[in-house]
Amino acid sequence: MLAQRKVLFEHIVADGEQVINKRVACLLNVHGFRELVPRLGPFELYVLDKLEALVHPKQVLDTHMYADTPEIEALLQRFELSMLRLRPAGEWKEGGGDIGHLQDASLQHGFCSVPDVEALQTLLVSDDVDLKLVHYQYPGYEHFDMVGLADRAIGFARSKVDEVRKAIRESPLIAALTAGNIHEFRRQCLCALDIVMEPPVDTQECST
What we know:
This protein is globular. A five-stranded mixed β-sheet has the order 3-2-1-4-5, with helices on one face. The chain is an alpha+beta fold. Helix 2 (about 15-25) packs across helix 3 and helix 7 (about 170-180) packs antiparallel against helix 8 (about 180-190). It has two domains: about 5-70 and about 165-190, no CATH class; about 80-155, no CATH class. It has helices at about 5-10, 15-25, 40-50, 70-80, 115-125, 160-170, 170-180, 180-190; strands spanning about 85, 100-105, 110-115, 130-140, 140-145. The longest helix has 13 residues, at about 160-170.
């Protein structure tokens, strides 16, 4: 999803030199990527390194492999999801003078503030809000937790759940990964970025 939206997200992938060097070191160890690394920009390095972490799940414990703003934003755009981002109670009224915000493409500017607890309660029980999260920050990284209600289930609308599941089922990249076909998985990663593996694996058109 992120790779297919390079034009929109390339400018917000802003790794520092140390993290870029980490990504380069990882990708230089991958046959098929090694020859491509010198001509990849920060965006391509970011996407390929994070996808490669799925092949080696232990790497996800490294903080530079965590899902970050670009991935979250790409997910919201792809499935037209709305997100309620709530700050911890100890931070209410700080900074923007509210307790959080709602992000939804249907809103003017895409955002609106959540001014108080009454507005929050209305949003928490709304079926129109897909993701309901508490957002807090530790030194060096940010974290999100799902909000739950004791007396009712909350989550995506059924139609959106079905759409997400359909996208997963039909993804050749995910199919290759779950089948353990790592060579094809990596080829699909490159296809998503419109990069041709050298030498080409075959002449079949890439499907993303």
